[in-house]
Specification:
The protein has 295 residues and is mainly α. It has one domain. The chain contains 15 helices and no strands. The radius of gyration is 18 Å and the shape is globular.
Length: 295
């Protein structure tokens, strides 16, 4: 049960991430730039650990590269979505994560998909359709925040699958690579969103903001990313994606009680469907038969 409790802790802390992120954004930092700087700082701190464990991961460069790319993008997109969009809407769309985890676990790891689990995926996708407005979604374009939220869920699901497969890579190395991957994937997005990164950094990163950003990167991000990687490595990818439902619950509570955001009727119905789907999957006792399908 230890990986379950660790993942619940990590997911809950991720659910509170919108609070410090919104505070940093108020100082003029865009989502991609914030992700790149914060995770880049954490990556620099973790670099000595990564190099020290070189012998343990040198034969798994393919898995590490995938983890950096997929997991790094997941974090970049997650931060960007929370900074740019409505937290409630972003979190509901992000929580297609269980559906992507189940589908990815079946496709890449050979995990079984029971009728119950398949129904949960269908329910989650239907709930997401309602969250974006139902039929009315076809008449309005998908916002960038919506796209970032959905792709962030895919990235986190991919991270879970790769971490589950790469059992031989130490958690510290996985965490460090994820940090560096986020910094790398955030750079081109920041260039596109901000235009001039240098000008934004010079005007927004005052000594006080930088000090708080370092504390956030090393303390908060370092702890919750390491605990997330440690726990998802030790459980089935589909189940890990669902146990992290705690993140959605905490994020919605923070958005409604602290920030004062409100949910529309369609968002409420869709959110309930996504939550029920997560509970159905979490209580599914179908066994997994992992297979090495990732290089």
């Amino acid at each position: 049960m230890l990986p379950v409790w660790v993942l619940l802790f990590s997911a809950s802390m991720w659910g509170l991430s919108s609070l410090p992120l919104k505070a940093f954004a108020a100082h003029g930092l865009s989502g991609p730039l914030l992700a790149g700087v914060a995770f880049g700082l954490a990556g620099l701190v973790s670099l000595p650990l990564l190099l020290r464990e070189y012998r343990q991961w040198r034969h798994s460069l393919g898995s590490l590269a995938l983890l950096a790319l997929v997991g790094g993008w997941g974090n970049t997109a997650y931060v960007t979505a929370l900074v740019m969009g409505d937290v409630v809407r972003v979190m509901l769309l992000f929580y297609l994560l269980p559906a992507w985890s189940v589908l990815g676990g079946w496709l890449f790891l050979g995990e079984q998909v029971s009728h119950r689990r398949g129904g949960a995926v269908t329910l989650a996708l239907t709930g997401a359709f309602l969250v974006v407005g139902g039929v009315a979604a076809f008449s309005t374009p998908f916002s960038m925040a919506d796209a970032m939220a959905v792709s962030a869920g895919m990235g986190f699901a991919g991270n879970n699958i790769i971490a589950r497969h790469a059992q031989g890579i130490p958690t510290a190395s996985k965490t460090g690579v994820l940090f560096l991957g986020c910094a790398i994937t955030a750079l081109p997005l920041a260039l596109w969103v901000d235009g001039s990164i240098t000008a934004t950094v010079l005007t927004s990163l005052t000594p006080t903001v930088l000090a708080w950003l370092v504390a956030y990167a090393v303390g908060w991000l370092g702890l919750i990313t390491a605990t997330w990687q440690w726990s998802v490595t030790r459980m089935e990818a589909g189940r890990a994606g669902v146990i992290s439902i705690a993140e959605l619950v905490v994020a919605l509570l923070a958005a409604t009680l602290v920030v004062g955001e409100r949910m529309t009727l369609l968002e409420c119905v869709g959110g309930v469907m996504i939550a029920v789907a997560a509970i159905l999957e979490a209580t599914d006792s179908a066994a997994a038969t992992p297979q090495a399908a990732i290089p």
